[in-house]
Amino acid sequence: MRIPAHSVCTAIRDDIVAGVYERGGRLTEEVLARRYGVSRVPVREALRTLEAEGFVVTRRHAGACVAEPTEQEAADLLEMRMLLEPLGAARAAQRRTEAHLKVLRGLVRLGQERARSGSSEDLRSLGGWFHETLAQAAGSPSLTAMLTQLRHKIAWMYAVQAPPSPVDHWAEHGAIVDAVARGDGERARAVTALHTERATTAHRLRFSGGGERVRTSQHAVNMSGLRH
């Protein structure tokens, strides 16, 4: 049975985000095909998609390699998210379905329970599901795809510290859902903008400091110790 290219693409992307492949490292079709148990055809298609998304670059004499983002490129992603997530929330207030609301409310309820009890181990994954569902509720496949790609790339480039007050963090999620449920686009936009701005302060570049060298121009330099 032929494994679809999008499944291979997801697997490679997840491994890039997880640090399995270091920045600047080569991605050969033969090795990847062997690792994921597929032919080279879906791997080739996956690499083209990942190049379009910015996770992979093609270099002369080297072929496909993991991209090496600059600090400015990483900072731009956070700025883009601060613009797009409030837009997504405003759209969700107008286009969400009852199914979206049910999932969002369930996630908020679970997140608030975990935050109050001090069980923080799964709060990050719950937060990811919350924002993914909120993006889907916007009813715009292109906007949802952009927000999903942003989340993947930010997770790749940044380590995120736990919020100082998980209870307050999830209260903000609850306020977003309340605005979305009321169909109040402007309120949803404003609350999400504040929430995203606060969350951004917890992000720390994975590839800065600690003796690691960061690409600050269009020329790649050696980087080491990047497996996470």
From TrEMBL:
Annotated ranges, domain HTH gntR-type: 2-69
Matches recorded under SUPFAM superfamilies: GntR ligand-binding domain-like, Winged helix' DNA-binding domain
Gene3D superfamilies recorded: GntR ligand-binding domain-like, Winged helix-like DNA-binding domain superfamily/Winged helix DNA-binding domain
Record's keyword annotation contains DNA-binding: yes
Transmembrane segments: none
UniProt KW keywords: DNA-binding, Transcription, Transcription regulation
SMART domains according to UniProt: FCD, HTH_GNTR
Pfam family, one: FCD
Start and end residues of each stretch annotated as Disordered: 209-228
Entry keyword annotation includes Transmembrane helix: no
Top-level taxon of origin: Bacteria
Protein name: GntR family transcriptional regulator
The organism's taxonomic lineage, starting at the top: Bacteria, Bacillati, Actinomycetota, Actinomycetes, Kitasatosporales
